[in-house]
Write a structure and sequence with these properties.
single chain, mainly alpha, MetI-like fold, 17 helices, about 75% helix, transmembrane helix, transmembrane, MalF_N, MetI-like_sf, transport
């Protein structure tokens, strides 16, 4: 290698390469004599500006102002355009940052006199090192527009005044900050409804889920007892409720619990001269819902616990017998730790699922019966079914979005806290 080449490499300036890349993507690569990569970056930036520049500018203006002329500007469309613009802009900024970092790293390599790979070697290295990212990127893009975009749209609606009496295009929306959340805890009609529904949601989640887990555990322990015969037949019968679609079971139970012609009152309770208003009294409706959910949920828990119980070594129970351990001690120190160690994440998901269990609440009695003084919520509505009523029945879209955010935060915090405390999701070497 000549002295001229060595001096040229020593004088190569990484800061200049970085500045050139900031001024225009690809200039730093051209300075580093990575001509093909530099041309690709330049084409990407120019194409991005020419094709999406106006759209992004319009989207950012729209999400900032929500429109200026009623019947011409549509605030909802402007919000969507703005969110799409932000996502696209985030992608562009990510690529731009990569362009700057790449130019700086390559400049340092040239300054140190390292060999710069040719085109074929660069493509091979990119494929070897970036293989996971190449295949993950399309799915990530779909995830952003199919999942993240609707969530962001819901979040933005919670900070607007979008409702039946203020809806585009007849009227423009305005940003109202945290006013919707303030209404939920200060204005009586909203406050009473919110805390009533929230309290029942907690009770419903804890009681219904705990009962289905307890029943599934009890039946699994019972069937797993060595003294029980015809285990396969019993397990098949107990899992049958799981085989029937849940919405079919709920509709059948809704007919059975009917106050007038349902078989519960007409054929069973009538023998004791009783008639319970299952669909008219909120208390009895809640009792019926909890019983139905216990019936729907225990087969899965039973199957789950049965598999775990069969995986526990019998040697441990024999060792406990030798040490004089009682049946309760074996259950407490052998059976329970193994069951909950293996199934804790799935049991947590049972609680989270029932917290948002819209199907049974709506299909059984549409959240009823009606309760005086509640804004859009019946006697058995939980948060998710109340959001449905706010959206489709009384068109309070902003309040529905606000409740949805609260609902999502609660579920995320609960799940995050429980998953962090369970050992099931930790790395094997860190247990």
């Amino acid at each position: 290698m000549s002295t001229y080449s060595e001096g040229k490499k020593k004088g190569h300036n990484p800061t200049l390469a970085m500045i050139l890349s900031i001024l225009l993507a690809g200039l730093g690569q051209l300075y580093n004599r990575r001509f093909i990569k530099g041309i690709i970056f330049i084409i990407l930036e120019v194409s991005f500006i020419l094709t999406l520049g106006n759209f992004i500018n319009y989207g950012l203006w729209g999400i900032r102002t929500l429109g200026t002329i009623p019947m011409v500007d549509h605030s909802i469309f402007l919000i969507i355009y703005g969110l799409v613009s932000i996502i696209i802009l985030a992608f562009a900024i990510t690529i731009y940052i990569y362009n700057v970092i790449d130019a700086r790293k390559q400049a340092f390599k040239i300054q140190r006199g390292e060999k710069i790979p040719n085109i074929r070697e660069a493509i091979r290295n990119t494929w070897d090192k970036g293989f996971p990212y190449i295949f993950v990127t399309p799915g990530l893009i779909m995830l952003l527009f199919i999942v993240v975009l609707p969530i962001l749209f819901t979040v933005t609606l919670a900070f607007t005044n979008y409702n039946l009496y203020n809806s585009p295009p007849r009227k423009l929306l305005n940003w109202v900050g945290f006013d919707n959340f303030h209404k939920l805890v200060t204005i009586d009609v909203w406050k009473d409804t919110f805390f009533h529904v929230f309290a029942w949601t907690i009770v419903w989640t804890v009681v219904a889920t705990t009962l289905q887990i307890a029943l599934g555990l009890f039946l699994a322990l019972l069937v797993n007892d060595p003294r029980i015969k015809f285990k396969r037949l019993i397990r098949t019968v107990l899992i049958l409720p799981w085989a029937v679609p849940a919405f079919v079971t709920i509709l059948i139970f809704a007919a059975m619990f009917n106050d007038k012609f349902g078989s519960i009152n007409r054929d069973i309770l009538s023998m004791f001269h009783l008639s319970i208003p299952w669909l008219q009294d909120p208390f009895w409706t809640k009792v019926a819902l909890i019983m139905i959910q216990t019936w729907l949920g225990f087969p899965f828990v039973f199957a789950l616990f049965t598999g775990v119980l069969q995986s526990i070594s019998k040697d441990w129970y024999e060792a406990a017998d030798v040490d004089g351990g009682s049946r309760w001690q074996k259950f407490k120190f052998i059976t329970m730790p193994h069951i909950f160690y293996a199934t804790a994440p799935l049991l947590i998901m049972q609680y989270a699922g029932n917290f948002n269990n819209f199907n049974i609440i709506y299909l059984f009695n549409q959240g009823g019966p009606a309760v005086r003084g509640q804004n859009g919520a019946g006697g058995t509505d939980i948060l998710i079914s109340w959001v449905y009523n706010l959206t489709f029945n009384i068109n309070q879209y902003n309040m529905a979005a606000a409740v949805s955010i609260i609902l999502g935060i609660i579920v995320c915090l609960f799940a995050f806290f429980q998953f962090r405390r369970t050992r099931s999701f930790k790395e094997e070497g860190n247990i």
